Amino acid sequence: MSFDAMRAAQKRPLPPLTLLGRPVTGVVSWNMNDTCNYRCTYCTQRFMPERTYRLKEFQAYLDAFAKLPGTWEIKLSGGEPFLQPGLDELVEGLVARGHLVSIQTNFSASPERLLSFLEAARGALHVFAASLHLEYDAPESFVEKAAVVREFLTEGGSFCVTSVATPARLQHLHDEVAPFFAQHGITFKVQPEKVHGVLRDYSDEQLGMLRALGGHNQTGQVAPNFRGRLCYAGANYFIIKSSGEAYRCYPASRGTGPHNRLGSFLDGIALLQEPRVCPFDHCGCTVPIQRGMIQGVSPSAESKMWGE
Fold first, then answer.
1. Who contacts 253 (Cβ-Cβ below 8 Å, separation ≥6)?
2. What angle do CA 16, 251, 84 make, to 5 degrees?
3. Per-residue pLDDT averaged across 299-306, rounded?
4. Which structural domain, as residue segments, surrounds residue 172?
5. How many domains does the chain have?
6. pLDDT greater than 70 at residue 294
């Protein structure tokens, strides 16, 4: 792309998008805490010296979210968000401020705890993603709870199960787990295992199984690479780490290049006003890929309404 063409593209706004029938400005991926009741061998946070951090500045974060322009989808994760005291009150506050809520959880919460959250998010719950960790749980236990979650999803919302596709588990995921969830009408997605943000070694046969399972989060690619393309991450998408630091995207949080860090969410952030060229060799952020935020990448049929 020439400089003139790139400059012209930067002036074009992201096409209007809607979630649950509402105009939406963008998406925030918020790693709200570091605590987790699991210790999976493949967890990217397993080497953290402290796994007990819980959010304390509730009101300050709600005030910060209230300052975002327009309506945003707030994707809650951790750690394990259901271990966060006051989660329901926080969700109610986000909903009251006009935002939508999605969540990524290991699905270990009690039925009472789950119902309490679903009530708090009623009318604003967009995506509920349950992570299957076979070291701790089995697919069968997810089916009944999935039925409960679906009762609270409004039109356009979705439920899915995700699982890290370690080489040791990949054959089982391909041959048994994926067909099991398909039989029960549940969307199943795999996440190829990464080490320090880089795809680990897989054999050609294993790569074939990963592609057959839809690639990384059903993006159709095992290791997406969009280096050199314009991306709206930092403008209509950003992440917040448990520290409160805000970054353009997940790869950006591991580097120090220009436009990587957007500031501190509590002290103030500066959203980018236009798309920037992606400088990374691997994209670990599903949202920009599936929601039309990357130059030349169309949303999948599954996610054209921002469904995943």
1. 239, 241, 245, 247, 260
2. 80
3. 45
4. 3-303
5. 1
6. yes
